[in-house]
Specification:
It is a single chain. The chain is mostly helical. Helices cover 57% and strands 0% of the residues. It has 3 helices and no strands. The longest helix has 25 residues. The radius of gyration is 17 Å and the shape is elongated.
Length: 89
């Protein structure tokens, strides 16, 4: 489950946990206004938790093939990764 162009698993882990926290906060806010809406939104946290767990484990067992170490959890410069926007050449 790689949700970025360069396939950085470490960054994907951080993004999924951030998504889970954001969605949990939204579910809480919805629950305060309309309890049923909050409960329905909270149900989707299960799927995000499963995706986060699988991505975390995939990141843990698949080290960088060149260095043998885990990829960093935060974006950083690396000779193999050349991040550019689509309009950049």
């Amino acid at each position: 489950l790689r949700n970025n162009v360069e396939g950085r698993l470490g960054v994907s882990v951080v993004l999924l946990y951030s998504l889970w926290l954001t969605k949990a906060f939204a579910a809480l806010q919805f629950y305060k206004v309309e309890p049923l809406a909050g409960k329905l939104l909270a149900l989707t946290l299960t799927w995000i938790a499963a995706a986060a767990a699988l991505t975390t484990r995939t990141w843990q067992i698949n080290p960088d093939p060149y260095t043998g170490e885990r990829e960093p959890l935060v974006p950083m410069r690396h000779p193999r990764w050349n991040t550019k926007f689509r309009w950049e050449k």
